[in-house]
């Protein structure tokens, strides 16, 4: 079954404590992305990657890092989380850019 | 990068067609238009996408104007289960574009299908 898997699904953490949200896809997709969604708003792209070792900033990259060392994985790293990064996060993947985008189920992150 | 504008809400009677508009007047020639929907805070669900031509699948039809500055998602026979937030997305395409994959969501249209 085609899947984009994110972990953890729910996390409460404290300001400044580094955390990583993992994302893995089983479809051998080239493209992967991270988005955040705040109440009442659409998803906003944080970072995207078009292949291994190739990443680029989306619209809201401040405070986040990513890496793409393997094709299937695209972790999102918050080096020093702050309360304004409290949000719902989605990982997504696709083959070529004209193909369907598959989304994960989301990760609720609360920074206190 | 293209921005998308959608009406915040729409109502539709069950069994009737729902027509959801999206404005993307700054779209570039290599940018695709995608439509997704989201129920509560679940992962967005794919509906349809296109580049220039109108598209149809088992869920919906996508009508893109000739100048590509706007599009309309059509759900031909809306049911109560189609109540959701519908997002119009513009995504950069192309194998050799350095920003291929960059995507911009609108703020979505909340579609309420009423009995």
Helix content, binned percent of chain B: under 10%
> What is the H/E string of chain A?
EEEEEEEEEEE
Instruction: State the helicity of chain A in percent bands.
Output: under 10%
The count of β-strands of chain B is 10
What layout of secondary structure does this protein have?
The complex is a heterodimer of chains A (112) and B (115).
Chain A lengths: L3 E4 L2 E4 L5 E7 L5 E7 L5 E9 L2 E4 L7 E2 L9 E3 L8 E8 L7 E2 L3 E5 L1
Parallel strand pairs in A: 2-11
Antiparallel strand pairs in A: 1-3, 3-8, 4-5, 4-9, 5-6, 7-8, 9-10, 9-11
Chain B lengths: L8 E5 L4 E6 L7 E8 L6 E6 L4 E2 L4 E4 L5 E6 L8 E9 L10 E3 L3 E6 L1
Outline the structure in words.
The complex is a heterodimer of chains A (112) and B (115). With 112 residues, chain A is mostly beta strands. Chain A is built from no helices and eleven strands. Chain A has strands spanning 4-7, 10-13, 19-25, 31-37, 43-51, 54-57, 65-66, 76-78, 87-94, 102-103, 107-111. In chain A, strand 5 (43-51) and strand 6 (54-57) form a beta hairpin. In chain B, 0% of the residues lie in helices and 48% in strands. In chain B, a hairpin with a 4-residue loop joins strand 5 and strand 6 (61-64). Chain B starts with 8 loop residues before the first strand and ends with a strand. The model of chain B has no long low-confidence stretch (mean pLDDT 93). Chains A and B meet through strand 4, strand 5, strand 9 and strand 10 of A and strand 3, strand 4, strand 8 and strand 9 of B.
């Amino acid at each position: 079954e085609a899947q984009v898997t994110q972990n953890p699904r729910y996390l409460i953490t404290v300001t400044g404590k580094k955390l990583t949200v993992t994302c893995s896809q089983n479809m051998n997709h080239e493209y992967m992305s991270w988005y955040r969604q705040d109440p009442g708003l659409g998803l906003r792209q944080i970072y995207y990657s078009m292949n291994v070792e190739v990443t680029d900033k989306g619209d809201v990259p401040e405070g986040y890092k990513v890496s793409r060392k393997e094709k299937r994985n695209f972790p999102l790293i918050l080096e020093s989380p702050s309360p304004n990064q409290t949000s719902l996060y989605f990982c997504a993947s696709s083959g070529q850019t004209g193909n369907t985008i598959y989304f994960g189920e989301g990760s609720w992150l609360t920074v206190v | 990068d293209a921005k998308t504008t959608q009406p915040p809400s729409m109502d539709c009677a069950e069994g009737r067609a729902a027509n959801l508009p999206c404005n993307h007047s700054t779209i570039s020639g290599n940018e695709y238009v995608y439509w997704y929907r989201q129920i509560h805070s679940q992962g967005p669900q794919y509906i349809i996408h296109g580049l220039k031509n109108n598209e149809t699948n088992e869920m919906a039809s996508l009508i893109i104007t000739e100048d590509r500055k706007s599009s309309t998602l059509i759900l031909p026979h809306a049911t109560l289960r189609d109540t959701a937030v519908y997002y119009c997305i513009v995504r950069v395409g192309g194998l050799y574009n350095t920003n291929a994959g960059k995507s911009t969501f609108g703020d979505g249209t909340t579609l309420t299908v009423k009995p």
